[in-house]
Amino acid sequence: MDTIRYTADGPHRGPGRRALLAGGTGLLGLLVLGAAATTTVPRPGAAGSVAATPAATLRLGFFANLTHAPAFVGTANGLFARELAGSGTTLETSIFGAGPAAVEALNAGAIDAAYLGPNPAIAAFASSGGRGLRVVAGAAAGGAQLVVRAGITDAAALRGTTLATPQLGGTQDVALRTWLAARGLKNDLRGGEVSITPTANAQTLELFRSGAIDGAWLPEPWSSRLVLEAGATVLVDEAELWDGAETGAPGLFPTTVLAVSPDFAARHPSTVDALLRGHLAALDWINTAKRAEVLDTLNTQLAQLAGAALGPAVLERALDKLIFAPDPLAGAYPRLLANAVAASLAEPAGLDGLVDTSFLERARTARTAGGSGAAA
Prior knowledge:
Blueprint (H helix, E strand, L loop, with lengths): L1 E6 L2 E4 L12 H12 L19 E7 L5 H8 L2 H7 L4 E7 L2 H10 L4 E4 L1 H10 L6 E9 L1 E5 L13 E4 L5 H12 L4 E2 L2 E2 L2 E4 L2 H10 L4 E5 L2 H9 L2 E5 L16 E7 L1 H6 L1 H20 L2 H16 L5 H10 E2 L9 H10 L15 H12 L7
Helix pairs in contact: 1-4, 1-5, 2-10, 2-11, 3-10, 5-13, 6-13, 7-8, 8-12, 10-14
């Protein structure tokens, strides 16, 4: 299996490249990238004249982050490769540091599928007129918190503070801006009563330790790291903001989804079917394997892909906040888009066609028929 790492100076092959692309242009950048890249993505039906065949190679992108654990397990345990091997397809992986870079790669045809946050996926779909990608499954849900320095006990205490998010217009960035606005705290791209600084997660930890920022809205394991390694306290657990009306259960909200290129899916549907079977197998393993084995596998992958493993307490706390399941939780997407629009980070758009669960349904049927069972 070949791996490409997208670093600050471009993509590179080989295990020696550990530096990941830490930045990201966020949702506004995605709108530009998506609009510029749509000419590289055929219109729906453009691939209809080409006979559907298995792909020679599936190029899969994901992040070196715990919320992309199904990708870790699918590659490390050979689950993707096993499903793809039946049709002679090889797997090539690409490691990204942020959603915009992964979306740009999808639009440019550099990768065929990617694990992404829901907000970048929504932005890419909207900015490309529905041609940029399709969400075919969920991967992770939950696991995001606003953590702050000691002494900040309510929203009013945030006036005059500086908070961080992983990237402008990303899933946590929009969540923070929405929460602040709902509590009467002005914030916009030029500042406001609360300053929001999009910052790479590792840098956020160091800035918080030094006192340069007062808190951050972060996905796992970074919220757990600030709590356990830097003395932060939890002001908001995002799970408390979802009552289940959109997603079917209180506390449930999408964190990571699996998306594919529509053109690739049209040309190679059997390859996407195989990817989804591997994805379900990875989810099933995460949820049923011995806890110690899961922890060891995930930490080994984090050490290899991100350059450092997590402390046992951090990993345990982070996993307790996350749910790994294939439901894309599509009912949440209109709310996520509406929040981004209200924060002046997106334009209104239709989301019909963003989610395509047909591959997931076939994969579930195939796994059930094979006696291995589907992930819950």
